[in-house]
Design brief:
Blueprint (H helix, E strand, L loop, with lengths): L2 E4 L6 E4 L3 E2 L16 E5 L2 E5 L6 E5 L4 E6 L19 E4 L5 E2 L5 E7 L2 E7 L1
Parallel strand pairs: 2-6, 3-7
Antiparallel strand pairs: 1-2, 4-7, 5-6, 8-9, 8-10, 10-11
Length: 122
């Protein structure tokens, strides 16, 4: 299933792409999260850039799963969003901002989750 998560009062959308219900979580009758439900999703977050328009969306990538689900009205609101930077994929960029798959000799920007650092590769 693919669905959007939006915090109340925000227009910042997180797209959950090709998700599934995790073990021990009871799915809804139609297997889709209800509007207003509290959903905790485990998966990798990335920023998808549309090649035609250049528009960017935040996305939880394929292979994610709902690890906790509370029906609408059974809670007070969103408590927190937690990103596990230690398990986030590492990406490297050159100083011109171009992504580099296999950095070799030089100075690069290393991005993991929300943390960016400069690294020297020898």
């Amino acid at each position: 299933m693919t669905y959007n998560i939006v915090d109340d009062g925000s227009n910042d959308v997180l797209v959950v792409f090709r998700g599934k219900w995790g073990a021990g979580v009871t799915p809804t009758a139609d297997k889709n999260p209800e509007v207003g439900a509290r959903v905790i999703v485990h998966g990798d977050i990335l920023i998808y850039t549309d090649s035609k328009t250049g528009a960017q969306t935040k996305e939880v990538n394929t292979g994610n799963e709902i690890v906790s689900y509370e029906a609408p009205g059974s809670f007070d609101g969103v408590e927190d969003i937690v990103a596990d930077d230690a398990n986030a994929p590492v990406e490297y960029y050159n100083l011109q901002g171009v992504r580099v798959a296999n950095p070799e000799n030089g100075l690069y920007i290393r991005v993991q989750g929300k943390k960016a650092t400069k690294v020297l590769v020898r």
